[in-house]
Design brief:
With 255 residues, this protein is an alpha/beta fold. It is built from 7 helices and 12 strands. The strands form 2 sheets. It has a 7-stranded parallel beta sheet with strand order 3-2-1-4-5-6-12, with helices on both faces. It has a 5-stranded mixed beta sheet with strand order 8-9-7-10-11, with helices on one face. Helix 2 runs parallel beside helix 3 and helix 4 runs parallel beside helix 5.
């Protein structure tokens, strides 16, 4: 049985994680406490406005973070001080945030993924293989779609897919986010990334390989937020007895 703390407890994803733990994984895990700007310590699961408000008597084995990038530095500091493993599932992180995670992973087990779906991990692998097989005669475009409340664009997942393709091909691609501001022929070394925001779309990602005589599309559609919560909890189980280090979906799938 592991004890999980949820950062962003009162948010949509925080609530889904709590529900998944209480139902699907109730025999293996429990929620020790939540962290959220909307503090409420009167309920069955106490929720604290910040890490400095958490009583020392409350213990957790792993923190799952579905919140806001602004909260990450203080959360990492807390996790390192208390020697708590952490699963970072927040999107829209900066290069400085990534550097802070790398530093923290030298002292605690840290799991980070821009997308907690196993299907997206598979999509990345298929996209890498397609790029290697099709060569430079196919143009690569990535289209991502999310709900109208998502703050960051493009999505962290779209960037992760582009980075996976780019790294596998020797970092030869540049990213084009906005074509309306200039009139220029598309370069073969571009990966175009487009964002759509509307309604309650959970998360769709499409990688397009457009050739002269055919178009190949690799698509992943998330049907429910439970998909990401399930992946985050499984990542928490994975981290439980791991030594300090930086882990991701590839690490989880390798075991």
């Amino acid at each position: 049985m592991i004890k999980i703390a949820i950062n962003g407890y009162n948010g949509k994803m925080g609530q889904v994680v709590a529900e998944i733990v209480a139902t699907t994984f109730s025999d293996r895990a429990s929620v020790a406490y939540g962290i959220d700007i909307a503090e409420d310590t009167t309920g069955e699961i106490p929720v604290y406005a910040g890490v400095n408000n958490i009583p020392d008597a409350l213990k957790a084995d792993v923190i799952i973070d579905f919140s806001n990038p602004a909260a990450l530095p203080s959360l990492l500091k807390y996790a390192v001080e208390k020697k708590i493993a952490i699963v970072v599932a927040t999107t829209g992180l900066s290069k400085e945030d990534e550097r802070l995670m790398q530093e923290a992973s030298k002292k605690i087990p840290l799991f980070w993924s821009a997308n907690m779906s196993l299907g997206v991990c598979l999509l990345k692998e298929l996209a890498k293989k397609a790029a290697a097989f099709l060569g430079e005669t196919y143009d690569i475009e990535i289209v991502e779609k999310h709900h109208n409340r998502k703050l960051d664009a493009p999505s962290g997942t779209a960037l992760a897919i582009a980075d996976a393709i780019n790294k596998s091909e020797g970092d030869k691609f540049c990213y084009e986010y906005d074509r309306h501001s200039k009139r220029a022929k598309r370069k073969p070394t571009e990966i175009g990334i487009s964002s759509v925001r509307g309604g309650n779309i959970v998360g769709d990602h499409e990688v397009i390989f457009a050739g002269q005589n055919e178009v190949i599309e690799i698509t992943h559609k998330a049907m429910s937020r439970s998909l990401f919560a399930d992946g985050a909890v499984k990542a928490a189980f994975y981290l439980k007895d791991k030594p300090a280090g930086f882990y991701d979906m590839d690490s989880l799938l390798a075991e």
